[in-house]
């Protein structure tokens, strides 16, 4: 006899997400010669980072993985701690409950449900943008405000939505006549929205967007992603 890879039996599609979480945790963190079904309840955050990165690259089918600043944002999210430094997180352990049991503060979903939504959206609609490093993605709203508030009018970046599963939003800065700046966030686009009109074309449509942060003209950054506009006759 031989142990199979982990299998989860589900009775409805809405259990798919939790089943994937169970299989991922089991595959990544169980010992080779373990007693069946025994798997660690807590794992080092560093191992979790490697697992999320491998999963992201495999699922999206890209060679561009997660960066150090992405891990920092994900650590702040899963541990609900905005005061710790990057090094502080390295020595921590993350639990199964934090990964896929506890609801994120002020949200209606778990960390894994949110991350899986990002995976699905990127795989379906954003693979080429991610691979060209046009999406900052994993960054907090507060940090975006800090970055953009001193930039020229119309500077923007793309981040995954915190409040919705599987959404991407555009944050951009506007300068008022009184010399004050304000950072605005456009309502997140879902996979359904982006199947109707692509992200590149939506960015082209929005006249208030000028330069991709830090300083790349919009057409230079996204030009290769624009679709040729059809004429009325077509």
Radius of gyration: 20 Å
The helix count comes to 10
H-E order: HEHHHEHHHEEEHHEEH
Number of domain modules: 1
CATH class: Mainly Alpha
Straight-line N-to-C gap: 62 Å
Q: Might you state the CATH topology name?
A: Recoverin, domain 1
Strand order of the largest sheet: 5-4-3-6-7
Structural class: alpha+beta
CATH homologous superfamily (4th level) name: EF-hand
- The mean pLDDT is 85
Question: Helicity, in percent?
Answer: 40-55%
Explain what the structure shows.
- This protein has 234 residues and is of the alpha+beta class.
- The protein has a single domain (13-223), classed as Recoverin, domain 1 (Orthogonal Bundle).
- The protein has helices at 16-29, 45-60, 68-79, 86-90, 96-100, 111-131, 141-148, 191-196, 199-205, 218-222, and strands at 42-44, 93-95, 155-160, 168-175, 181-185, 211-212, 216-217.
- The protein has a five-stranded mixed beta sheet. Strands 1-2 form a two-stranded antiparallel sheet.
- A hairpin with a 7-residue loop joins strand 3 (155-160) and strand 4 (168-175).
- The radius of gyration is 20 Å and the shape is globular.
- The termini are far apart.
- Residues 114-213 form the SH2 domain.
- It comes from Grallaria varia.
- This is STAT6 protein.
């Amino acid at each position: 006899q031989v142990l199979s890879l982990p299998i989860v039996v589900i009775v409805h599609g809405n259990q798919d997400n939790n089943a994937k979480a169970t299989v991922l945790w089991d595959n990544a963190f169980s010992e080779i010669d373990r007693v069946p079904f025994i798997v660690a309840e807590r794992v080092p955050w560093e191992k979790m980072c490697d697992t999320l990165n491998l999963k992201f690259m495999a699922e999206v089918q890209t060679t561009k993985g997660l960066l150090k600043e992405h891990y920092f944002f994900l650590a702040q999210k899963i541990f609900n701690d905005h005061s710790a430094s990057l090094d502080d997180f390295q020595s921590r352990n993350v639990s199964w409950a934090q990964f896929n049991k506890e609801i994120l503060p002020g949200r209606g979903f778990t960390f894994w449900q949110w991350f899986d939504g990002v995976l699905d959206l990127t795989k379906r609609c954003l693979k080429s943008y991610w691979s060209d490093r046009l999406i900052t993605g994993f960054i907090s709203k507060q940090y975006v405000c800090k970055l953009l508030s001193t930039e020229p009018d119309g500077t923007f970046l793309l981040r995954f939505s915190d409040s919705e599963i599987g959404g991407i939003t555009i944050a951009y800065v506007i300068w008022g006549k009184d010399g004050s700046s304000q950072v605005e966030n456009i309502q997140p686009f879902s996979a359904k929205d982006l199947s109707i009109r692509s992200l590149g074309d939506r960015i082209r449509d929005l006249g208030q967007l000028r330069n991709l942060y830090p300083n790349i003209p919009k057409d230079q950054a996204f030009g290769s992603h624009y679709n040729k506009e059809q004429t009325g006759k077509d």
